[in-house]
Amino acid sequence: MQHDYVNPFGTGRTTIMKTIIHKFDFPLTTLSSGKRLFDSRKLVAVALLIIAALAMSTAPAAIVTVRVAPEGEHVFLPANISIDPGDTVRWVWEGPKHTVTSGDPVTGNPDGKFGTGLESTGFEFSFTFPNAGTYPYFCGPHREMGMVGKVTVGSSGSSAAQPLNVSTRLRVQTGEGAMIGGFIITGNAPKKVIIRAIGPSLEAAGISGVLANPTVQLNGSGGAIASNDDWKSNQQAEIQATGIPPSNDLESAIVATLSPGAYTAVVAGKNQTTGVGLVEVYDLNQPADSKLANISTRGAVGTGSNVMIGGFILGNKNGAANVILRAIGPSLIQSGISGVLGDPTLELRDGNGALVRGNDNWKESQQAQIEATGIAPDNDLESALIAQLAPGAYTAILAGKNGTTGVALVELYQLQ
């Protein structure tokens, strides 16, 4: 069965943000080792959060969000950031009576390059940095309490850790229950990737009811680009050369060099079969002047081991990354999707299985911060959370409240 380019949202809204995916020095085998990452929660296979959105020919300028005095603390979070010329920093207030004042944090002398007056809760301030350089700043009333920051503008780009080599595991069904992942390649050069559809080998990790014979189809905005049923049926030598061929002959893989633009990968069962499957995308050419971006997956969310399990590794840079995760269900109805998950819940866990943050309805916590991103969920029952994450492995678990089931979308955006 051929599948045209599919927007995971359905036929409706697409979103573009400068979310950059890099590969770093973790062995690629780490990414398919569920035990290494998620033993404490019996989660298998590092999850990927892949997304399709609007195609882009070049990477846009970034908008980096800095939280001002989050949760009553007298700090900027993150305090030190690195960006490219032309990028914008947006400071969002979460507590009353603070300033953003460019100047010497030691003496408290402003230099007049950028800044605000004394502002209260709900305010935000943005400044675009056109030139390379170092720009220290401080909060006027709280400088002596250590509320200072620095923006470094240079050609090296952000120092924040970035998501890479990501995947999603869920129960693959038929029709709208197929697993639809997507990603954007941004930049100025083609990007070589491998896409894998995994099923039978999940049994070795203790997963039952696996997708016995997964197929994968890669689509671009112009239609189907490539498809595969059993990975040895074509590109065998090229797939083996990546060092990460599927471990079962019935699993599928595609190696492709893709120009900047929007792509989707549709994973289904051969002859309309169903079962638990895993979709993965790896960047095989990190040095290229292009990147993977804006990642999500849409599919059917079940219960127990059939919830949607996504994971990602932050790496390549040493700084903390500011990310937002969203679990979308009811608003998919507007895009013509039926059988949606009525009340999705979301958990973010670290590589040890410890809970970092959870959310049921997005307005119950972090409402102001989520709204400030400009991509708050459309429906109050949908979930979202913002977290500042150090480099490492993480997993997102999307489930239905009270054991409910349905089609849902999980998304990851990097805000910095």
In short:
This protein is mainly β and 416 residues long. It is built from three helices and 25 strands. The strands form four sheets. Strands 15-12-17-10-19-24-21-22 form an eight-stranded antiparallel sheet, with no helix packed on it.
Describe the structure.
The chain is mainly beta. The chain has two domains: 28-59 and 160-414, no CATH class; 63-153, Cupredoxins -  blue copper proteins (Immunoglobulin-like). It is 4% helix and 42% strand. It has three helices and 25 strands. The strands form four sheets. It has an eight-stranded antiparallel beta sheet, with no helix packed on it. Strands 14-13-16-11-18-25-20-23 form an eight-stranded antiparallel beta sheet, with no helix packed on it. The chain has a five-stranded mixed beta sheet with strand order 3-9-8-5-6, with no helix packed on it. The radius of gyration is 21 Å and the shape is globular. The two termini are 39 Å apart. 51% of the residues are buried.
Describe the SSE topology:
Elements: H1 34-38, E1 63-68, E2 76-77, E3 80-83, E4 88-93, E5 101-103, E6 110-115, E7 124-128, E8 133-138, E9 148-153, E10 162-172, E11 179-187, E12 191-198, E13 214-220, E14 223-228, H2 236-241, E15 252-258, E16 261-269, E17 275-283, E18 290-301, E19 308-315, E20 321-328, E21 344-350, E22 355-359, H3 367-372, E23 383-389, E24 392-400, E25 406-414
Parallel strand pairs: 1-4, 3-9
Antiparallel strand pairs: 1-2, 4-7, 5-6, 5-8, 8-9, 10-17, 10-19, 11-16, 11-18, 12-15, 12-17, 13-14, 13-16, 18-25, 19-24, 20-23, 20-25, 21-22, 21-24
